[in-house]
């Protein structure tokens, strides 16, 4: 007895087309409803076959990132597809997947995921070098810059990087709507304003007369402070320094 072959996507589409032709001009509601159920079941089966085919075709890819981006801040695409053979030696991030697989509800934050804006400004203005330090005190953003120029496989266009980033996204995503876009835009504007405030605070702080006029309370004595006559003190010091005659 010949072994029964599983239907292919092509066979399922042919069956759906055949049923649709039978439905054309059919007036019996019960028969029409039954045929519609058959079509729905065939479409579900077709989607499952496509999904299975895609999983079988998944192979390891050479993941690329722009020069200067820390690989540990980029999710490993091969690990998501369960085809990464590097394990702990992989230079891309596996942490997110491990957290889900281990079932950890809360995991300590291992560090920021944003690159320092002062670092970006220094790079754009050709001011970055090995001795560069962030001018903002206690900055918690990323300041590590990895030189990947020697590795030709890491150089790619912005479009390629965006596509790889899109592929590495998880399932729990916020859909892009006009409302969510406006919220994101407002957040970016606030971040830019905060960054400009930091720059202004570093470049121009109140000094001298400006500080006295803006914060006079800093120069006021406490109520319990002891009153001293500095002129009398100066005279007494001169008397002590004068040798006896």
From TrEMBL:
Matches recorded under InterPro entries: ZC3H15/TMA46_C, Znf_CCCH, Znf_CCCH_sf
Pfam families given in the database record: DFRP_C (PF16543)
Gene Ontology molecular function, alphabetical: mRNA binding; zinc ion binding
GO cellular component terms, A-Z: cytosol
Biological processes per GO annotation: cytoplasmic translation
Gene3D superfamilies: 6.20.400.10, Zinc finger, CCCH-type (4.10.1000.10)
C3H1-type zinc-finger residues: 70-97
Keywords (A to Z) from UniProt: Coiled coil, Metal-binding, Zinc, Zinc-finger
Listed transmembrane segments: none
Annotated C3H1-type domain residues: 70-97
Recorded coiled-coil stretches: 9-52
Name this polypeptide is given: C3H1-type domain-containing protein
Source organism of this protein record: Vairimorpha ceranae (strain BRL01) (Microsporidian parasite)
